[in-house]
Amino acid sequence: MGEKNKKGKISRRDILKGIATVPLLGAFGYALYRKKQYDNYIKGNLVNEIGLSYEAPKAAIWKIKSSDKLIRIGIIGFGSRGEDIIKASGFAHPDKIKKIKDAAESNNGDTRFDDYQNQDHLNIVINGICDLFDVRAERAMTAAANHMRTWDIEKIDKKQPIRYKNYKELLASPDIDAVIIATSDHWHAQIAIDAAKAGKHVYVEKAMTKTIEEAYRVRDAVKQGGIVFQLGHQGRQTESYIKAKEAIQKNLLGKISLIQVSTNRNDPNGAWVYDIHPEGNEKTIDWNQFLGNAPKIPFSPERFFRWRCWWDYGTGLSGDLFTHEYDGVNQIMELGIPHSVVSSGGIYFYKDGRTVPDTYQVACEYPDRDLTLLYSGTLSSDKYRGKIFMGHDANMEVSEKLIINAEEKSTRYKEKINAGIINSKLPLYSYKPGMKDVDAITSATEAYFAGRGLLYTYRDGKKYDTTFLHIKEWLDCIRNNGTPSCNIDQGFQEAIAAHMGTLSYLENRKVFWDKEKEIVI
Predict the structure, then answer these.
(1) Phi, psi torsion values for 67, nearest 5 degrees
(2) Nearest one of 123, 62, 38, 8 to 406, comparing CA atoms
(3) Which of 84, 407, 432, 436 has its CA 20 to 30 A from that of 166?
(4) What is the bridge-based pairing of β-strands 178-181 and 71-76?
(5) Confidence band (pLDDT; 50, 70, 90) for 458?
(6) In whole angstroms, what is the distance from residue 261 CA to residue 7 CA?
(7) For the purposes of burial, counting CB atoms within 10 Å of the CB of 105, is it exposed (0-12), middle (13-18) or buried (19 or more)?
(8) How confident is the model at residue 47 (pLDDT cuts 50, 70, 90)?
(9) Where are the alpha helices (DSSP H) in 226-363?
(10) What is the number of other CB atoms lying within 10 angstroms of the CB of residue 499?
(11) By the 8 A CB rule, do 355 and 313 touch?
(12) Angle CA(311)–CA(165)–CA(313) in degrees, nearest 5?
């Protein structure tokens, strides 16, 4: 390639001169060569001009030194998500381990078993289990006793976890320091409030609350209790999200007026039509306790196992899926609660008696930022659409990776675009965390979460489950009196934004947030 100029950069003239001397490679080889030279030039040019490197980003709390203090955990709710959290924390049911171990033996590219075995020991024990379905409670007991490193855990505590029939009994136990709440949405708030009052640290799954009023109560309880609170948005740990925030801080995109996010699924499981366990009946399920403050109706296995389909227990697309997208954008842009929200949608595909929509869209307005956040989701098409940040100078797509393209009419990059140095049809910047191996995706659900950076990411070049990192961050903050990335203030913003969308949908009108009075109008 020709010599470097005095500043150590390769000029466009150098690139063209080098390309001109290339032997005949054929159209395909020539195109690859040009693309490689462009990538190399852009890579060096961008780092020199704006300082956005290609090195892995530094997670804010990643390097906190954990103490040796053992933390005793109680798990409340052991459905699919509860089991995933416990597995990520180092406690997997034996059949889960067998499944990924067998897969690794039959496929060298499947690294899930090795990744799991090599993850750090969190120095926790699970002392309490509470689930309203006997079969799940028994499964949780087995998982809690099956630590990934049994030789370590046996040195710490040989006690078997206790199963509690009511979460209040678990919270009253002196052998519990912190709780993980993975119940149906309509129980999140009350359990979190009671846990905070009992002095137990809280990790709760999204949506944080089922109602607007509960959001205030949870925030007050957490702040008054002085406990460490983490909301279960594991995307906070994804490297591409952290890198995207760096790009925004460096104003790489210029003025951003529109952000578009979505979540599309096209299978029954993704539409919350979960399997009904054959042993689920009135003898094995505490139906009255499950209902709580929901309307009293006769036992329904459909409602127990598929609770997300009804407003009585769930928060619909707004609380379950929009919250992931909103939190990702809020992490990157620090938008906060929108000034106004209008939403629409309906039950267009799943005519199965559900009350929550299967198609839903929301427009969140931020007039103080001259910006609109648009969300749309459907449960009857899996057409992929990532998080897209649309700026005057560049646009950015964020998923498990990060891609930035210059806008053809950009002011900032105008000269380089006109000179042919920057091609708006090719990435100006791209970042994909440590991807050197082939990832094992075994289901449509896994592919969905992996594509959004919610399944795994990297730290210092090592692959990690994002839920593991989110739990680790929470535990480190408990030990060091720190503040997690998705703390109660972030959770409050998420809850209010999601509920504004739900309120707009249910009442068919635009709703507003009074920032000074902190009330929804």
Answers:
(1) -80, 175
(2) 38
(3) 84
(4) parallel
(5) confident
(6) 41
(7) exposed
(8) low
(9) 239-249, 287-291, 301-305, 316-317, 323-333
(10) 25
(11) no
(12) 0
**Sheet containing 201-204: which strands, arranged edge to edge?**
162-164, 124-130, 71-76, 178-181, 201-204, 229-231
| Residue 327 CA, distance from chain mean position | 8
Which alpha helices (DSSP H) does 51-160 contain, by range? Answer: 80-88, 94-106, 112-118, 134-144, 150-156
Residues of the chain with pLDDT > 70, as a percent, come to 82
| Tokens at 218, concatenated | 């949870």
Q: Give per-residue pLDDT as tens, 103-162.
A: 999 999 898 899 888 888 899 999 999 999 999 999 999 999 877 654 344 444 456 899
The confidence score (pLDDT) of residue 460 equals 81
Decide: 242 and 59 in contact? Cβ < 8 Å: yes
Cβ atoms of 328 and 387 within 8 Å: the answer is yes
Asked whether the predicted pLDDT for residue 69 surpasses 70, the reply is yes
* Residue 219, SS3 per DSSP: helix
Rounded Cα distance between 446 and 121, Å, is: 24
pTM for the predicted model, two decimal places:
0.87
CA distances from 283 to 176, 275, 277, 279, 280 (A): 28, 19, 13, 9, 8
Among 297, 324, 325, 330, smallest CA distance to 312 is for: 297
Indicate if the alpha-carbon torsion angle 248, 249, 252, 255 is positive or negative.
Answer: positive
